[in-house]
Amino acid sequence: MPAQAGIFADDLARCMVRTTTEADRHAMLRWLISSISVHPVLKSMITVSAEQSKAANQDAALLMERLLTVSCKAEAQQALRSEGGDVLGYSFGQLGQIAGRELSNDPAVAQKMQEYMQVVDAKKIQEALAPEEKR
């Protein structure tokens, strides 16, 4: 992915965000979880069946096809012509960030993400980050 996208990559990303539905973004999240579930660190924590993985891949492929050939076809063509092939990764990355934000905005997910704070040693952190004169 380019460090900084050009105007046409941004246009494509905005089109993708604008034309996807909540169901589309949920499909992206299912594909992402299915994909990362094979990582050695996560493999024992996430179980995705072969059928679920196949369905997630199919849904992600259909979404990508629709975005690039129908919903955002003109933006994709312009971005590819003007800025090259990296624009697709950038634009889908932006869409993934939006989907991820929706995930963390879910109250149950947000609460679960805060559970680690119950075991954090706040005093230890405060002492380590305090200015020298206050230690």
UniProtKB/TrEMBL annotation:
It comes from the Bacteria. This is Uncharacterized protein. It comes from Uliginosibacterium sediminicola.
